[in-house]
Amino acid sequence: MSASSHSYPMSGGDDKHSYIHNSSYQKAGIDGVQEKARQYIFKNLDLLTMNPNLSTFTIADFGCSIGPNTFHAVQNIIDIVKLKESQENSLVPLEFQVYFNDLPNNDFNTLFRTQPPSSKQDYFSVGVPGSFYGRVLPRNSIHLGNTSFTTHWLSKVPEEVCDKKSPAWNKNYIHCNDLIEEVTEAYKVQFTKDMRVFLKARAEELVAGGLMIALGQCLPDGVAMYETWPGIVKDTIGDCLQDMATLGLTTEEKIEMFNLPVYFPQSSELKGAIEQNKSFTIEMMEIVSHPLEAMQLSNNFVTSMYRAILSTVIEEHFGDSVVDELFRRFAKKLSKHPIDFEKCKKQMVYHIVLKRK
User: Fold this and answer.
1) Is 62 helix (H, G, I), strand (E, B) or coil?
2) What is the pLDDT of residues 55-112, one digit of tens each?
3) How far apart are CA 300 and CA 311, in angstroms?
4) Alpha-carbon span 58 to 119, nearest angstrom
5) C-alpha closest to that of 242 among 231, 256, 225, 229
6) Can you state the angle between helices 69-87 and 14-44, rounded to 10 degrees?
7) Strand 124-129's sheet: what is its strand order?
8) Please, what is the end-to-end C-alpha distance for the chain in angstroms?
9) For 144-180, how does the pLDDT look when each residue is reduced to its tens digit (9 = 90+)?
10) DSSP state letters, 120-158
């Protein structure tokens, strides 16, 4: 399967509660590093150097999904830029323009319906449909870019992991769990390509001196995906699909051709991929624990969160009749075989600030 996704679509019903759980998990990660981001922007953003006559400050949130975290992140950026503006004694108050970007199938209507009323007084909003693995805005048009928990979604699944003749065929698994070296290498190559395209596009869109802020998850060097609880979750979902194939609810052939377009790099891989682009300087790169990583999350929370994350890609490949039964079986497996979160190795949250040269 070849898919591209950098948001978590929601279709309604039970998926609404699923989305809320996933959104809560992301927000906890954002809040965990927010204060340092605010301090950095306040200290290093030079409005006068960007343009002595600057009247409109433009922000882009890449992979915005349908909120509310995108509004939360944008408002924090605007608040700190306003504070910075007051320190520089600007004669004309800045206006703010915010571009909300995601794939064309994102529900932009829901995004703007749920926009906090107060934010409409602080900035002008524009929806920008299109994959961020490429230019979506004019050259030199934004002062600050932001993306949160998006770049682990690849532009596509590496072709060889679905090729039965390839050493990288991922026959028994639905994601890159680092158990097959050739599969991991194929995903790593695709991630590196995607990051190169992502950063090249952002370098063209940002003004000189503009900032790109990226927040996401990675693995500590030496930790394999199958050793983490998210890795165990995806392997268990794969087991549930195999059970359904045995019962004739789907087919073995469909499962063999299904892989998630998701890759979590090790921290050194992430840094290396960023350093290949010579248009940015790495102003800050911090890797910290997710605030919820050490908690014993409930089975309901985990099931709801992964239903929100994966339901769209599963529906696209298997059909919408599979999702309810799949996650019913998944919840049942978790009840019988709970994940021991304390014994699992941890993913990390990275927080990166890049400055356009």
Assistant:
1) strand
2) 999 999 999 888 788 998 899 899 999 988 887 766 678 999 999 999 999 999 999 9
3) 16
4) 15
5) 256
6) 20
7) 124-129, 95-102, 56-62, 142-148, 206-218, 348-356, 280-289
8) 38
9) 999 999 999 999 999 999 999 999 999 889 999 999 9
10) GGT-EEEEEES-SSS--S-TT-EEEEEEES-TTB-SS--
